[in-house]
Write a structure and sequence with these properties.
This protein has 21 helices and four strands. Strand 2, helix 20 and strand 3 form a beta-alpha-beta unit. Belongs to the monovalent cation:proton antiporter 2 (CPA2) transporter (TC 2.A.37) family. InterPro entries: Cation/H_exchanger_TM, Na+/solute_symporter_sf, NAD(P)-bd_dom_sf, RCK_N.
């Protein structure tokens, strides 16, 4: 290996080691790992110790793939069945939030002295919720099946659609004439629609057979998932679309299938690796004077927008006839400046739409609000007990009632064998419903067609246990051939 190649490999290794250490510290402090990834770039890059420089070819390639895999994970989280029953109020909240928060962010940015165009870009970047963080924290708390958790996930699904549209618009880049801008944006949306139709048809007629054939071997399932993501990344690149749009649509196609949760768990370590390099690379692009160019404005903006956005989102929840508790719990999960502000900011810098100083401003806002928001989401019910006396005056009689979790007063049977039917007959007398958790592909069709609930996946995985509401099950029986799933 040449000296240049050794230097590149050393920089990359140093970045990964630093990200690993800081991620471990973040986990001990109950902080999002995304914060640790950004801080990795701050510590080892030009802002900090100057151990790794911007422009490392290997880091740039992996970082670009990291953005693609971030959008792939975003797509695979979007199961439309999760919000079907509350789609109308959720859509109204999401639309109102996007408009009102954009107006508020633009106003605050103008007040702080930014130009109109800069303010509009800041508003675009700060409108989205932190999907990976919110889903992770609510999942760890077991609140994704609560009414406010379902509403938050629904809002995030709508916001993710807005995000993809924003990415498509930014992909056009700098065009001088208005008609050229319109034609370029129209072309992007047409091509995106064609890729989306291809993804939908594949999820209906091709993917179920492919995944059923590959699910018996978990290594093969992982390989198929990676290959599917790269297939759409390649298609998007060939059509001159951004790779993140292709990756998002690939994940979206997988999300509607019963294999999605298991596949997501299998792919998470690899995708997290790419995502870590992407967020670290954002900080590698900045000098210390760029990060701190607007540090006072960033602090003021955080304080103002936290308050303004709380009023906006709480009011939207309340206007859709959710009760006060649901409105409060759902609101405080949605207030942080998300990691997608960095994504859009970095893309805007690459397109020469904004200066790196604005990216530094967005980065500081994210680094301030994400750690704080993690704690107030973790302790949201304690906060509600504190403010309840002040909010009870707004309570009303007719509200959208909290729906029960997907499985309640139920039995969970882990594994499927000749005993499963007999066990189901025995426990059916004491529970309202039964859900079977099985990760062998040969039983997917049989269990999907049965009257009982079915979740494909390994019962050791946290997401599988949450989907089955294992902690709330009245009866849990394991007939799995592999005893490790019982741990």
């Amino acid at each position: 290996m040449s000296l240049g190649g050794m230097a590149i490999a050393a920089d990359f290794a140093l970045l990964i080691v630093a990200a690993t250490i800081l991620s471990y510290v973040a986990r001990l402090l109950n902080q999002p790992t995304i914060v640790a990834y950004v801080l990795t770039g701050v510590v080892v890059g030009p802002i900090g110790l100057e151990l790794v420089a911007e422009g490392d070819e290997l880091i740039e390639i992996v970082a670009e793939l990291g953005l693609g895999f971030l959008l792939f994970l975003l797509g695979i989280e979007m199961r439309f069945d999760d919000i079907r029953e509350i789609a109308r109020p959720v859509g109204a909240i999401a639309f109102g939030q996007a408009i009102l928060q954009a107006v508020a962010s633009t106003g605050v940015a103008l007040l702080l002295g930014f130009t109109l165009f800069q303010s509009l870009m800041i508003a675009l970047a700060t409108t989205f919720g932190a999907t990976p963080i919110i889903v992770k924290v609510l999942g760890d708390k077991g609140d994704l099946k609560e009414l406010y958790g379902k509403v938050d996930v629904g809002i995030l699904i709508f916001q993710d659609i807005y995000l993809v549209m924003a990415l498509a618009i930014l992909a056009v880049g700098s065009v001088d004439e208005i008609n050229e801008v319109a034609l370029s944006i129209g072309r992007v949306f047409v091509l995106m629609g064609l890729v989306g139709v291809a993804a939908y048809l594949a999820s209906k007629y091709f993917l179920p057979t492919l995944l059923r054939a590959s699910a018996a071997n978990k290594s093969t399932l992982f390989t198929v998932g990676i290959a599917w993501a790269f297939l759409f990344i390649f298609a998007a690149e060939t059509l001159d679309l951004s790779i993140e749009i292709g990756a998002f649509l690939a994940g979206l196609a997988l999300a509607q299938l019963p294999y999605s949760t298991e596949l997501k768990e299998r792919m998470r370590p690899a995708t997290n690796f790419f995502i870590a390099v992407f967020f670290a690379s954002i900080a590698l692009q900045m000098e210390v004077d760029q990060l701190l160019a607007y540090w006072q404005e960033a602090i003021i903006a955080c304080v103002l927008l936290l308050g303004i956005n709380f009023v906006i989102v709480f009011g939207l929840f309340y206007s859709q006839r959710f009760d006060v508790e649901t409105s409060f719990l759902g609101t405080i999960s949605m207030l942080q400046v998300s990691e997608f502000s960095l994504v859009l900011g970095a893309l805007a810098v690459d397109q020469d739409l904004i200066d790196a100083d604005i990216l530094g401003f967005l980065s500081l806002m994210a680094l301030i609000t994400m750690p704080i928001s993690t704690y107030y989401v973790l302790y949201n019910r304690q906060l509600y007990r504190y403010v309840r006396p002040y909010l009870e005056r707004f309570e009303r009689e007719e509200t959208i009632e909290a729906q029960p979790v997907e499985y309640a007063n139920h039995a969970v049977i882990v594994g499927h064998s000749r005993l499963t039917g007999e066990l189901a007959d025995v426990v059916r007398e004491t529970v309202d419903e039964i859900v079977v958790v099985e990760d062998r592909a040969e039983y997917v069709e049989e269990l999907t067609d049965s009257a009982d609930g079915f979740i494909f996946g390994n019962a050791r995985h946290g997401d599988i246990r949450q989907d089955a509401n294992l902690a709330g099950a009245k009866v849990v029986v394991s007939v799995a051939e592999r005893t490790d799933v019982n741990r």
